[in-house]
Amino acid sequence: MKQDIIELSKQVEKEIEPIFKRIESICENNSKKVLESFQKCKLQETHLNSSTGYGIDEPGRNKIEEIYSHIFRAQDSLVRSQLISGTHALAITLSALLRPKDTMLSITGEPYDTLQTVIGIGKEQSKSSLKTFDIHYEQIDLVENDFDIMKIQERLKKQDVKLVEIQRSRGYSTRKSLTIEKIEKVIQAIREVNQDVIIMVDNCYGEFVQDREPIEVGADIAVGSLMKNLGAGIANSGAYIVGKKDLIELCAERLTSPGIGKEIGPSFNQNTVFIKGLFFAPSVVASSVKTAVFASCLLEKLGYVVEPKYNEIRADIVQTIHLGTEDALVKFCQGIQMGSPIDSDVIPYPADMGGYEDKVIMAAGTFTQGSTIELSCDGPIRKPYIAYMQGGLTFEYGKLGILKAIEHMKS
Questions:
Q1: Which of 176, 299, 309, 394 has a CA between 20 and 30 Å from the CA of residue 97?
Q2: Angle made by CA atoms 367, 370, 376, in degrees to the nearest 5
């Protein structure tokens, strides 16, 4: 490692100390929320035990869902290893809540690439998309990284939209991620003109980054992956859906079968890792945010365009770096891989991936495959060649990974 980068790194760490204090305060608040939920719901050692087979009314699984409901201030929740990813949980939710001729409205512009395939609006068409079931899609773009409230209200006055979708994180776009304060404001505006529309938040990458969650500010349902924030790198599968009881029941019936819903679903020895992951999540999310702040400050000083800036309020764990060329993007991701604990000798290259329109490079030497709460970096091979970096189980490991990535990119 070149001495000038090491010295710059030390300078950056001193500069971002006040930001770290703010992150630690949020971590303490969310840790208190988790611990109180464990205690309020009377979590016991027996709840760590798992079932097999049908898993009919398994106590441990039910207790986990009770805890999630309490943390998110929701009426009910569905937390299952059978939910494979965030996209899977979103697909289950949308297909559970929408019927033929219903209209869903995205008010955060174009959704994430894989969700476009689910809806049926991307270049990659699926015979199982919502579009093939005659479910209609509309979108309203953000204006200057905020909701176009006037346009949203005007559209919803017609009372013919079944579901409003809000994507909290940026996805593979250049817009800012959305703070919980902005989400609260738009939900209040929606309710001024339409009391019945379902408000769904894609909460991926956003959990525990701020003090509050979407249900607390009026959302009807929120969805996320345990391979991200709430799994803390400990849960090795799963996703969650939280919200109103009647909506959760519809999602459960879509996941299992009508008439059965939440009653079945064995947890296959996942209860301990789900619980332990949730317990560590506030601290691990804080480490991920610290890692992103460090990367933002350091790379900006090296002349790159970054978003968010190191001292901005954050809504998720994602840090974008505009690298300008395909070669720089590929090398930065390769450097992240080299700085990983697993498969550090593997060299990633861009490739086609299901659900994505462009070739994508993905770097993640993680303990759990696809775990983006662990330090990882990816990006589509398209202009302006942006790296989307997230994760870091500890700040120290995250910092070392970033320094390795910079070293490789400069070599």
A1: 176
A2: 80
Do the bridges between strand 360-363 and strand 376-380 make them parallel or antiparallel, or are there none, so unpaired?
Answer: antiparallel
CA distances from 395 to 97, 226, 236 (A): 39, 20, 21
Going along 67-129, which residue ranges are E strands?
76-80, 103-106
Q: Are 60 and 267 in contact (CB under 8 A)?
A: yes
Residue labelled with tokens 């697909």: 91
SS3 94: helix
Of 150, 151, 135, 187, nearest in space to 166 by CA? 187
With beta carbons less than 8 A apart as the criterion, state whether 253 and 247 touch.
no
Q: Of all helices (H) and strands (E), which one includes residue 242?
A: strand 239-243
**How many C-beta neighbours within 10 Å does residue 408 have?**
17
- 287, 307, 284: which is closest to 296 by C-alpha? 307
Please provide the distance, in angstroms rounded to a whole number, between the alpha carbons at the two ends of the chain: 10
Q: Which segments of 128-244 does DSSP mark as H helices, in order?
A: 149-156, 180-193
Place of tokens 């773009």: 141
Strand order in the sheet with 239-243: 76-80, 239-243, 221-225, 198-202, 163-167, 103-106, 136-139
| CA distance linking residue 208 with residue 280, whole number of Å | 11
CA distance readout (Å), 275 to 64, 252, 269: 7, 21, 11
Cα within 13 Å of Cα(134), Cβ side: 3
